[in-house]
């Protein structure tokens, strides 16, 4: 099917008081992907997700989820999406199993199509099925939120900062589950501050800044946009004057003998950079390079957009 999982067209939101949180955002989330929605704090990500969830009313534009316009077919649109919010919200006096059963009831999921234990197993909470939810750790609560969002088996799952404050091991478990869901055909949209995770997980990434879309590309292409490379060169003597060369964009010293040189991939290559160091009369003892990553691209794009 060619239809998008989520289609967002000229989406605007101006809050009462005049704050324009979304300013004409247009993009599609293709079906079957893990899609990253990134942006600095206050960019408008939560506003966008809250519009998808039906918690915030847009002030302009159109949104459809799994082909259902959220204004014309709100029930079908809502049934097509599961959302895990930043805040952890559930009644602490119910057990995880009860929490899922209540949610299934709210969504009208027939009993024969719902297996609370299977869902709890999937998020590694099987042994906590009958514990009070308030006794769960932060990471466990978050996983319970994911299970809750999947109760009605929606084709689209949205996770807003799902791993904030969750330790590394639990983050990996959560991502493993997200990948598994995706392999089973669920389209996943996530926001995260961990750019490295977005780079590893997402097929495609959109970046918003001050309510505007500033990038929307396959992850590999986006990372490929990084033009800067950094090479660390350790030399055979103390450096009295930091060498300069046309192919260096920036040179910093790390200790007495290590030069940290930034250059642009489109203007020079590592050979030229090293040649320039030798040309300054320095012998090279050691070299290491760092590939540019999503963080570099993200900073460059948001800086450029901020003018
Ligand atoms: N209810 C509200 N009333 C007025 N302004 C709001 C409201 N909610 C959000 N905003 C403003 O809208 C802008 C976008 O906020 P939003 O929470 O969508 O950003 P975000 O990208 O999710 O940020 P974060 O990563 O910090 O959660 C911010 O300037 C925020 O202060």
UniProtKB/TrEMBL annotation:
Keywords: ATP-binding, Nucleotide-binding, Transport
Domain of life: Bacteria
Organism: Sphingomonas kyeonggiensis
PANTHER family: ABC TRANSPORTER ATP-BINDING PROTEIN (PTHR42711), ABC-TYPE MULTIDRUG TRANSPORT SYSTEM, ATPASE COMPONENT (PTHR42711:SF15)
Keyword Ion transport belongs to the record: no
Pfam family, one: ABC_tran
Residue stretches making up the ABC transporter domain: 6-235
MF term (GO), any: ATP binding
The name this protein goes by in its record: ABC-2 type transport system ATP-binding protein
InterPro entries: AAA+_ATPase, ABC_transporter-like_ATP-bd, ABC_transporter-like_CS, ABC_transporter_ATP-binding, P-loop_NTPase
Entry keyword annotation includes Methyltransferase: no
């Amino acid at each position: 099917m060619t239809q998008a999982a989520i289609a967002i067209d000229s989406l605007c939101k101006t809050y009462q008081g005049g704050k324009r949180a979304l300013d004409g955002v247009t993009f599609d989330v293709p079906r079957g992907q893990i899609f990253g929605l990134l942006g600095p704090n206050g960019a408008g990500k939560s506003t966008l997700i809250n519009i998808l969830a039906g918690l915030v009313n847009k002030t302009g534009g159109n949104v459809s989820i799994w082909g259902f316009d959220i204004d014309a077919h709100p029930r079908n649109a809502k049934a097509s999406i599961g959302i895990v919010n930043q805040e952890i919200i559930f009644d602490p006096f119910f057990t995880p199993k009860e929490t899922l059963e209540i949610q299934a009831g709210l969504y009208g999921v027939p009993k024969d199509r719902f297996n609370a234990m299977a869902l709890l197993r999937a998020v590694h909470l099987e042994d906590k099925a009958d514990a009070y939810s308030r006794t769960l750790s932060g990471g466990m609560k978050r996983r319970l939120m994911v299970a809750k969002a999947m109760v009605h088996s929606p084709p689209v799952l949205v996770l807003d900062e799902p791993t904030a404050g969750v330790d590394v091991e639990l983050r990996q478990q959560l991502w493993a589950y997200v990948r598994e869901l995706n392999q089973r055909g669920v389209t996943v949209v996530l926001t995260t501050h961990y750019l490295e995770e977005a780079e590893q997980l997402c097929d495609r990434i959109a970046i918003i800044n001050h309510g505007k879309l500033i990038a929307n590309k396959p992850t590999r292409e986006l990372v490929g946009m990084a033009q800067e490379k950094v090479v660390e060169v350790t030399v055979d003597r103390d450096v009295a004057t930091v060498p300069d060369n046309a192919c260096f964009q920036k040179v910093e010293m790390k200790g007495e003998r290590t030069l940290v040189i930034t250059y642009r991939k489109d203007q020079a290559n590592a050979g030229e950079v090293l040649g320039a160091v030798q040309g300054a009369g320095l012998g090279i003892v050691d070299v290491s390079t760092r590939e540019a990553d999503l963080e570099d691209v993200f900073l460059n794009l948001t800086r450029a957009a901020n003018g």
